[in-house]
Amino acid sequence: MSEKFCHRCRKTKGLDQFRPTRQGVSSACASCLDARQHRERAEAQDRILNTVKTLPTLEDFYAKLEAAKEEEYLSHTILFQGAHFVRITSLGNENIVDAGPENDAGNEAYRTKADIISRQCEDILGYRWRYHDMIQRVGVRGELPAFFFRYRCAQDQQMQEKARKTTDVSKQRDRRAMAFFNCESHLHVTLQIIHSTFTAKIDLKHTDDHIPYRATQLPPEALEMIATNKEKLLKDVWQDVRNKFPNASFSRDAVYHYHRSLKMKDWKLDPDPVTSANILLRRASEIGAWDGLHHQLQVIDLGKNEDYEIVGRSDQGTDNGFSL
Q: What's phi and psi for 142, nearest 5 deg?
């Protein structure tokens, strides 16, 4: 049998016009299969084009990021995880659209735009993003390559370097070290031109509302004043600092984060909240351990439970006896 019936074009053709398969030859001829492939590619390109046209703008992304920052004081994290696909206006970015990624000038233009996005994220969140590396990717099929830029919070523990000692006096610096935190951060920016439209996919993660980078720039006198008056209310501390530095460039937010970090050290004695609570209670159970404590505490060991963890204590007040 040297011929076969094509179920698509409904014609009988020679076997040499069909594609070989593990079971023999395809049920449709090669011409019909090619036509279907071209049609599916065209439909996919149309879907991509329609998606690009309806993408939110970069300004919309910044507005959502500002809203996430407003909620950070409740969640202590930036609830903004996941990739956000946006389009960037060509106005002011003609050098990127025209240059393309094939030469050094194009590469530099892409890097400059990614840095601008990272700095805008810094202005909104207060955390400085440090450039890590860049990877060139194939991106969307049939389009120009994509550039994948990676940044991390400058205060992330992953970015901390070991101190290097030197005997050269001219290179020795007497300065405060920047504070580092386990904020598990990343800022990924993928830039690509799709159907002549400049697009960006932005993925941001930050899980610790630590002292922002600008807070580390507080002058030593302000840091000392905040530390000395950490038992005061924040509004009173801020007023004292403002009176001392009426023309200060730092913000109230910077003072708040440093004040909060100092207060946290008094009660957050372990990353695990149950362990931290146990340490606090055991300290309070020691007679004379805390000045101004009007109750005598006794820690009760309730044993372990597979379903939940609990901390037990009894209070001996001055008038009401014991309570649990």
A: 85, 0
